[in-house]
Amino acid sequence: RKEVEQDPGPFNVPEGATVAFNCTYSNSASQSFFWYRQDCRKEPKLLMSVYSSGNEDGRFTAQLNRASQYISLLIRDSKLSDSATYLCVVNPPGQLTFGSGTQLTVLP
Amino acid sequence: EPEVTQTPSHQVTQMGQEVILRCVPISNHLYFYWYRQILGQKVEFLVSFYNNEISEKSEIFDDQFSVERPDGSNFTLKIRSTKLEDSAMYFCAGRTGNEQFFGPGTRLTVL
User: In 3D, which of B24, B32, B35, B36 has the Cα closest to residue B52?
Assistant: First the structure.
């Protein structure tokens, strides 16, 4: 079983749409959880940390379910600039363990 | 806002040659990391470094790899004898709290 598993997509959505990404992780000792975004041939950029109570940052909402070892990211009112690969990242602890990413394209 | 920087942005080398990739973390970072990403694949952890020594390393980080912080600011990754399969993006990261912030990467091409 992959340590961090994501639907690779691609997700092609129109501007203004709401899109949700899901992720599961295998290491129950994982302590920290993140969503990063990565543009083509660029470095991963931290989008948001994910907390047990769920957290929101503008149009982005992240949820964590420790019992199911499941993480989600919801993007509302998607913009063209949201087009990127979204990486689910888990800290089990120490090193970061990355999922393969979900590719999002927001269409005009 | 200060950022992690890396040099060079692109390095081309012949198989068997040594390469040194350089990173300048943000001054308040205490933990430093190297990751690599082979084209089309996921980001993979190589090594973490704290208090001038390796704190954790992956199975990828074999005897061909080494890290050091020679002057208190630069953080380097050395590959002693490069192989074709070392071609990848190499990212340096520094940590603040639980969050890691990545440099722009060095694209290593081994011919």
Answer: B32
Are A100 and B103 a contacting pair at CB < 8 A?
A: no
> Residue range A31-60: average pLDDT?
94
Distance from C-alpha of B86 to C-alpha of A27, rounded to nearest angstrom: 28
Q: Which two tokens stand for residue A99?
A: 């999922």
B38 and A CB contact within 8 Å: no
Query: Nearest-CA neighbor of A88 among A27, A23, A16?
Result: A23
Interface contacts (A, B; CB < 8 Å): 46
Tell me: the pLDDT tens digits for B50-104? 888 999 999 999 999 999 988 878 899 999 999 999 999 999 999 888 889 999 9
User: Does the CB of B104 have a partner CB in chain A at under 8 Å?
Assistant: yes
